[in-house]
Specification:
- Helix content is 50%, strand content 11%.
- The chain is α+β, with helices and mostly antiparallel strands.
- It has a 6-stranded antiparallel β-sheet.
- Strand 1 and strand 2 form a beta hairpin.
- Helix 10 packs across helix 11 (231-238).
- The longest helix has 35 residues, at 7-41.
- It is globular, with a radius of gyration of 23 Å.
- 28% of the residues are buried.
Length: 305
């Protein structure tokens, strides 16, 4: 017989393998070219970085993109040199944020990496370049970008100083509902009645999200795991809480600044499934003074990391 396959089948198999490998190499080269091109077109000011005077390369340095995306320089170099392929969806999304990609460019990057684009019925967590520009300019405000499942996608340095640095944590640990019901530390200060209202509001938001995004697997997994680990969440979930207005003022305790109570506004982003949570204080108020002190003290700590 000469092998497990007839001669014609072996030839067909060999051709198929060559075609697949050739396609993978082409995708890898296209991925590398896109990453290099998109890095070179982005200026430091576009990414919220200092220009640093005269530069020997166009656009951002590889080290700067790696830092913004939370990747190693070596891994980014291998991607740009066609020596690595198929980065995970989380890496693709991190690169999309760092490179200020449009929704279409991120979709292209996902396809090249062998991943499906977000399906209808899934939460679109992409930050558009315009939202990124807003975050770059709101240096004097605590602002968080939160998705429909209450997961923190991005935060300004002042928001990080206020609520803590969640940027290096896995997606689940960046979800505010998960953090609350699993007992993670929080700078928020509320009365028992206020906590009860907040819990009902968080659960109601997830009920609403499940209805709007039934195909979102991370969302469904979040709800299932919360039901398993938190009896309080499970009881509220079975009660089908009706959405209620979230608190418009929130009190935080910061170890260096003390208590500060801030106005909280959630701004929707047109054409996206994220919202901007913005904290402000009335000009001239003690809370405004505390926020200014936080900007001085907290940002020094942030810059020192």
């Amino acid at each position: 017989m000469g092998g497990p396959f007839p001669r014609n089948d072996r030839a067909t198999f060999a051709v198929t393998v060559v075609v697949i490998i050739g396609g993978m190499e082409a995708s890898k080269d296209e991925l590398a070219g896109c990453l290099r091109s998109w890095r070179e077109r982005l200026q430091p000011v576009d990414a919220g970085l200092p220009s640093g005077g005269r530069r020997r390369v166009n656009g951002l340095r590889r080290e700067e993109v790696a830092q913004l995306a939370g990747l190693s320089v070596d891994y980014l170099a291998r991607l740009e040199q066609s020596r690595a392929h198929s980065p995970s969806p989380s890496v693709v999304n991190a690169l999309a944020r760092a490179l200020r990609l449009s929704r279409e460019e991120r979709a292209h990057l996902l396809r090249l990496s062998g991943h499906a684009e977000p399906r209808p019925g899934s939460i679109d967590r992409h930050l558009t370049p315009s939202v990124r520009r807003l975050l770059d300019r709101w240096t004097d405000l605590p602002v968080m970008v939160v998705d429909a499942a209450n997961g923190v996608i991005e935060a300004t340095p002042l928001a990080t100083a206020l609520v803590g640095d969640l940027s290096g944590l896995p997606r689940r640990e960046r979800n505010l509902t998960w953090r609350h019901f699993t007992g993670a530390p929080s700078p928020l200060r509320r009365t028992p009645e206020e906590w009860e209202d907040a819990e009902e509001s968080m659960v109601a938001e997830l009920h609403d999200a499940i209805g709007r995004f039934p195909a979102d697997e991370p969302l469904r997994s979040l709800v299932e795991d919360l039901q398993a680990v938190s009896p309080r969440f499970a009881a509220l979930w079975e009660g089908h809480c009706v959405a209620r207005s979230p608190a418009k003022r929130k009190t935080f305790h910061h170890p260096q600044v003390g208590l500060l109570t801030l106005d909280c506004d959630a701004l929707t982003v047109d054409g996206s499934d994220v919202r901007l949570v913005v904290y402000t204080a009335a000009p001239g108020s003690p809370d405004a003074d505390a926020l200014a002190l936080l900007a001085a003290v907290g940002l020094q700590d942030f810059a020192a990391r």
